[in-house]
Amino acid sequence: MKHPASSAAAPLDGLVTASFRRHFAVRTDDGETVACVLKGRHLALACGDRVRVARTDGGGVIEALLPRTTLFYRSDAFREKLIAANVTQVIGVVAPDLGVDEELINRWIVAAEAERCRLVLAANKADKPGFDALQLRLAPFAALGYPVVVLSAKEDAGPLLPWLAGQTTVLIGQSGMGKSTILNAILPGTATRTADISEALATGRHTTTHSTLYPLPEAMGGGWIVDSPGAKAFGLAHLAPAAILDAFVELRPLIGHCRFRDCRHHREPGCAVTAAIERGAVAPHRVALMRALVGDSEVARAPGR
Ligand SMILES: Nc1nc2c(ncn2[C@@H]2O[C@H](COP(=O)(O)OP(=O)(O)OP(=O)(O)O)[C@@H](O)[C@H]2O)c(=O)[nH]1
Ligand SMILES: [Mg+2]
Ligand SMILES: [Zn+2]
After folding, report:
1. Checking phi first, is residue 156 left (phi over 0); if not, alpha (psi -120 to 50) or beta?
2. Ligand 1: does its nearest atom lie under 6 Å from the Cβ of 209?
3. pTM of the full structure
4. Does residue 140 sit in the same domain as residue 209?
5. Domain limits at 43?
6. Cβ–ligand 1 contact at 127 (below 6 Å)
């Protein structure tokens, strides 16, 4: 005989909205937010992941990860650091009062291109001195096709709103650039909601230590946005050499036009990339970064390592 009432509730699917070590907040498809732990050690999850949850007394256990469309992450020599899953767009936040590092921006671009995500640069703190100089430094990125949105989030995040509509976005950038300020401007009251989630996760830590996902209201075009902790390094060792090369948009039309089919675009004669540098068609520092990243990736993949 069956006892439907006595069996455990059926598993629910949901969206990971906060992630802190092995603790997660999951918003189930019936609209409830549940504090969850992860079953087993094999899964790595990020905000934006869809998961299957089994309810327990007062919480839940994440039993399975549902398929991802994208996974935006960085890595170092030892481990991979998941930033957000299922994003369609990466917004890199920069500001004039902190040293903006072109190489870091280029690394964000490579990671975003590798996942076929749109990359937008948010040039924040337009009210601060030195903003004109920052804009000049960002012009080459705009010329490559990466939109640069100017704003002063402390006053008004309005300029970013059209870029968010209908997208699933992750905000990234060094600490202090204004990611959380942008979130608060877009969704007033975010700070208190964040505190609620921290309590649910029993961490008691400050919001900037872990990523949090916020749904955007239908009136703003729907979708969601993830605020991530600041990071000043962005390792790409997880990307294969071919993926790195393909992430440099201005080099794509040149690939296949070198004298040697297996050209590594270093010092080979008849290299279309080197020729493009010589005629001023591509930026030498971007090619230098491509070569360095491909070299690192090859070392990371070398047998016996
Ligand atoms: N003048 C000015 N200050 C801003 C603006 N936006 C943010 N700030 C200030 O910059 C500081 C850092 O802002 P946050 O939003 O905490 O920066 P964050 O990128 O979230 O930093 P982490 O969480 O550490 O990664 C705060 O003191 C903000 O008030 C702006 O448009 N203009
Ligand atoms: Mg923050
Ligand atoms: Zn070449």
Report:
1. beta
2. no
3. 0.91
4. yes
5. 9-65
6. yes
